Amino acid sequence: METTLEVQRPAAAASGRPKKNRNRQRRPRSAKLIAGLSIAGAIALFGILGPMLLGDPNAISNETLAAPGNGMLLGTTQTGQDVLAQLAHATRGSLTIGVLVGAMAIAASAFFGIVGAYIGGWTDEAFSLITNVMLVIPGLPLVIVISSYVPDKGLFLIAGVLALTSWAGGARVLRAVTLSLRNRDYVAASRVSGEKTWRILLVEILPNLMPILASQMVFAVIFAILGEAGLAFIGLGASGTWTWGSMLFYAQNGLALRLGAWWWFVPPGLLIAVFGAALSLINFSIDEIINPKLRDQTLAARKRWNKPRAGKTASAGTGKATP
């Protein structure tokens, strides 16, 4: 029994080391994902709960263009409206447009990219032609033209216009990956066994495309928020809806920059930048999952960074030990 215990202890210790190493490697790798999700989640929570707690953003008070303080956390506008209440409703509006555009763009990309590539033949050629035409058409002028000719621009119309110009690039990527997946052995086996096309697409092909779809969804949300902010800034945004872009538009018309009312235009601009940075961190972490070479390069760079630190720690320890 004593010999058995002595043999088992090194084995347990040896089996425990790789787990620690794995945990050490996983924690830094997911740091960007955790930071991005935390920041984006906090902004989304503010957009969901803020409008319920802060009241009407169109309510007018007697304090016009008041600086932050005196009961107004972010001050008031030129007409006495609470900037914090406007910011909460604008956050909800911008996030709603971002999610709508992301969902519609991903649906169009998946339909034209995955379905066309798997079916092949004239269907693939027709879908590729439509995709190439949408890639050639400049997106921003098309969005401006469509928005300028529609008098009543609602939230869903702006989201649809932005989605119309943002799905083609993702469809090309999904088509290329699907053409590779359709020739795999497990897909061919499912096809020979008589599985239906929709089941092969949903069960065999779509799960392998989920990281790419997630990355495209994040990029589509960023594009939608920036695109809507640009449209609203030039007066072509959604009418009757508060967004970050509409706040910047009213701040520009109210001469906030000239009057020094920084609390009017800095918060929406800062939220656009911070939310875009958070989604970029999420997108970078997804890229590391999709691309093994990028993940290996990140780990190699981290090891090179840790080597000098380990050497300095060891030299400091030996220096303290010597009298």
TrEMBL record:
<keyword id="KW-0812">Transmembrane</keyword>
<feature type="domain" description="ABC transmembrane type-1">
    <location>
        <begin position="95"/>
        <end position="283"/>
    </location>
</feature>
<feature type="transmembrane region" description="Helical">
    <location>
        <begin position="126"/>
        <end position="149"/>
    </location>
</feature>
<comment type="similarity">
    <text>Belongs to the binding-protein-dependent transport system permease family.</text>
</comment>
<dbReference type="Pfam" id="PF00528">
    <property type="entry name" value="BPD_transp_1"/>
</dbReference>
<dbReference type="InterPro" id="IPR050366">
    <property type="entry name" value="BP-dependent_transpt_permease"/>
</dbReference>
<keyword id="KW-1003">Cell membrane</keyword>
<dbReference type="InterPro" id="IPR035906">
    <property type="entry name" value="MetI-like_sf"/>
</dbReference>
<dbReference type="GO" id="GO:0071916">
    <property type="term" value="F:dipeptide transmembrane transporter activity"/>
</dbReference>
<feature type="region of interest" description="Disordered">
    <location>
        <begin position="1"/>
        <end position="28"/>
    </location>
</feature>
<feature type="region of interest" description="Disordered">
    <location>
        <begin position="304"/>
        <end position="323"/>
    </location>
</feature>
<feature type="compositionally biased region" description="Low complexity">
    <location>
        <begin position="311"/>
        <end position="323"/>
    </location>
</feature>
<protein>
    <submittedName>
        <fullName>Peptide/nickel transport system permease protein</fullName>
    </submittedName>
</protein>
<feature type="transmembrane region" description="Helical">
    <location>
        <begin position="218"/>
        <end position="242"/>
    </location>
</feature>
<dbReference type="GO" id="GO:0005886">
    <property type="term" value="C:plasma membrane"/>
</dbReference>
<feature type="transmembrane region" description="Helical">
    <location>
        <begin position="97"/>
        <end position="119"/>
    </location>
</feature>
<feature type="transmembrane region" description="Helical">
    <location>
        <begin position="33"/>
        <end position="54"/>
    </location>
</feature>
<dbReference type="InterPro" id="IPR000515">
    <property type="entry name" value="MetI-like"/>
</dbReference>
<feature type="compositionally biased region" description="Basic residues">
    <location>
        <begin position="17"/>
        <end position="28"/>
    </location>
</feature>
<keyword id="KW-1133">Transmembrane helix</keyword>
<keyword id="KW-0472">Membrane</keyword>
<feature type="transmembrane region" description="Helical">
    <location>
        <begin position="155"/>
        <end position="174"/>
    </location>
</feature>
<feature type="transmembrane region" description="Helical">
    <location>
        <begin position="262"/>
        <end position="286"/>
    </location>
</feature>
<keyword id="KW-0813">Transport</keyword>
